[in-house]
Amino acid sequence: MAREHYVVGLDVGTTKICTVVARPTAGEGLEILGVGLSPSTGLKRGVVVDREQTTLSIRASVTEAERMAGLPVPAAFVGITGDHISSVNVTARVNVAGAGEVTQADMDRVLQSARDSVSLPADREIVHVAERQYVLDGVSGITRPVGMAGTLLDLEAHIVTGMSSIIRNLERCVQDAGVRIQQRVLEPIATATAVLAQAERDLGVILVDIGGGTTDIAVFTDGALCHTSAIPVAGNHVTRDLARVLRMSLEDAESLKRKWAVATPGAIAETEAVQIRRAGTDEIERIPRRLAAEITEPRLEEIFAMVQRDVRRSGVYARVAGGVVISGGGSQLAGTTHLASRVLDGLPVRVGVPRGLRGLGDAVSTPVHATAVGLALCAAEARAFVTQPVAAEPGTAGAWARLSAWVRARWPRPHGAPANSSSGS
User: pLDDT, tens digit, for every residue of 239-286?
Assistant: First the structure.
């Protein structure tokens, strides 16, 4: 028996719960061992509105990931998001103590000074502190000043805050599902870890993660995080627009959006049609496919216009030469990159997907899984391992063996069916 070290990322979203179990590989990659994806039924715009349903949804996702990986999930890095999130950039200064050489104690003091400079109401707390750069005796751009000579140490930091009650409710649901929270991570930061290249961060880039209930925004300039926020308009609003205009159920509208909607009506021929079912009936009607696109386009335009206004207010819009990366389920409609570029003044736009994955990596190399993969990457970087005695299984072959066992357990063959039988005839 060998002891296996692995990491877990848990993305608790408005429309889906995603759990990723992975093993760190040489370098900065991951070998994906298991993934669990379940519908989310207890959240609205990233906020818990039904504790019992949220707990059940989390448990379903975790259980599926455990079965596929063949490993337990007792702990995880958990994402935090919602339109209650806000951020501010601060600067703090301390005198270097001792013999004029920066120590870890000096760095701890200046970091605490940065945290203390944020005025927090009783109902808010600090979620994340990003150290943008240190300045030592006027010399900027320093990332690790320990051991350097100087007398005045400054820190430029990006501090993210959120509502304490909202965060506590989410934490309790995760714990009720049997998962210990190793660390909370702001979801835009986790997504950025999975989909952004360092060159984009250095040039300046806007990450737009379009989820179900919220659209998360993170802006990087000069290689460091400088702005984060969330807006309360996202993919579910597109679904509701389709349902309301076409008089469909939300379930059928979501299916229509995924299968047939596009972001740019001009890409659809006027003669192309699709079938829909009116709400409360079995009546099937044919409608122009372009109509679905004409309903979808204004809402997506609104989302990107809100992103633009938000980033302009932060004062860094002119510094994003690296363009825009979009992710999340709402990024998958055909034509979304073209529409986003049109609204965002012609900036280059691409869809971000997790890269550098092995094992079952193909199963999570989509924008939908980006946040959960990013959380697992954050856990790997922090060396926050879950350790479990397991039988040693070398490389990818072991992962596929676990996947095959999971498939057989979930869809067993009928009694007496031959081993090579299939469902088709």
Answer: 999 999 999 999 999 999 999 999 999 989 989 999 999 998 888 999
Q: Do the Cβ atoms of 173 and 48 come closer than 8 Å? A: yes
pTM listed for this prediction:
0.85
Joined tokens for residue 233: 């308009």
Closest to 23 in 3D by CA, of 2, 37, 47: 2
3-state SS string over the chain? Answer: CEEEEEEEEEEECCCEEEEEEEEECCCCCEEEEEEEEEECCCEECCEECCHHHHHHHHHHHHHHHHHHHCCCCCEEEEEECCCCCEEEEEEEEEECCCCCECCHHHHHHHHHHHHHCCCCCCCEEEEEEEEEEEEECCEEEECCCCCCECCEEEEEEEEEEEEHHHHHHHHHHHHHCCCEEEEEEEHHHHHHHHHCCHHHHHHCEEEEEECCCCEEEEEEECCEEEEEEEECCCHHHHHHHHHHHHCCCHHHHHHHHHHCCCCCHHHCCCCCEEEEECCCCCCEEEEEHHHHHHHHHHHHHHHHHHHHHHHHHHCCHHHCCCCEEEECHHHCCCCHHHHHHHHCCCCCEEECCCCCEEECHHHHCCHHHHHHHHHHHHHHHCCCCEEEEECCCCHHHHHHHHHHHHHHHHCCCCCCCCCCCCCCC
Write down all domains in the chain, each with its CATH number in brackets. 86-162 (3.30.1490.110)
| pLDDT tens per residue across span 74-132 | 999 999 988 898 999 999 999 998 788 999 999 999 999 999 999 999 999 999 999 99
Residue among 196, 367, 240, 226 nearest 310 (CA): 226
Using an 8 Å Cβ cutoff, are 139 and 118 in contact? no
User: What's the pLDDT at 415?
Assistant: 45
pLDDT of amino acid 399: 53
67 Cβ contact list (under 8 Å, min separation 6): 34, 36, 406, 409, 410
